[in-house]
Structures are given as C-alpha cells and as structure tokens.
Amino acid sequence: MIVVAIIALLAAIAVPGFVRARKRSQASRILNDLRLIDSAIDQYAIETSKKGGDPVGVTDWTNYLKKDTVLFATGQDLFGDDYGAQTVDQLPHVPATAKTNLAPVADDSFWSPYN
C-alpha cells in the first residue's frame, strides 16, 4: 500500500510537467508553421511577380511547402483552425484558438512577431 501511495505521489508530481511540455511543444510547432507560411508566401510572390498587399490563397502558399505534411495537406494548425488566405509582405497571425489554448505556456512575447 505504501508503494502504491509513493507511485501516486510521483505521478501527481510528474503529470503536470508532461502536460506543460506537450503544450509548449504544440506552441513551438505553430510558431514554426507560421515561419514556414511566411517563407512560402515570399517564394510564391517572387515566382509570380506579386507585389506587397496582393492576396495569396491557401492553395497558392501550400504549394510551396514540403509535400506529405499536415500543413501542406490541410492548411490548418494543430487545433483544426485554418491559417487562411494571406497577404504578400504581411506576417501570418496566430489563430485565436491556438493562442487561447496555449496561453499558459506561450505569452505574447513568445508569438512575436506573429501576434
């Protein structure tokens, strides 16, 4: 019985750390997705002679991502929210749901400059 109590105590200490690490990993992935989207938009704009302020559809920027990835296939974040159409020379923004869900581990400075 003492062994079970010790295991339960250790689990109670470890589980919140694992949950926090998982959320931080999700936030890092979304931040990386935003960087990839920004790079894809730049490549699209250069190859198609677009100028600042021109709209870029989802299929246009996803064509400049690595094939066989979730971002390429869906254009969505981990929570199923669309990154949506973008604009040349404007940074993509963090989807509101992701920002809300990950607020405990990622403050506004974490998301900079994609706020």
- Could you give a short account of the major beta sheet? 2 strands, antiparallel
* β-strand amount: under 5%
How far is the first residue's CA from the last residue's CA?
A: 51 Å
State the secondary-structure class: mainly alpha
Helix proportion range: 55-70%
Low-confidence stretches: none
Across the major sheet, the strand order is 1-2
Kindly report the average pLDDT value: 94
Number of strands: 2
Shape descriptor reads elongated
> How many distinct helices?
5
The figure for the number of domains is 1
Spell the H/E element sequence.
HEHHEHH
Q: Report the C-alpha radius of gyration, rounded.
A: 19 Å
Brief descriptors of the model:
single chain, 115 residues, mainly alpha, two-stranded antiparallel ribbon, 5 helices, 2 strands
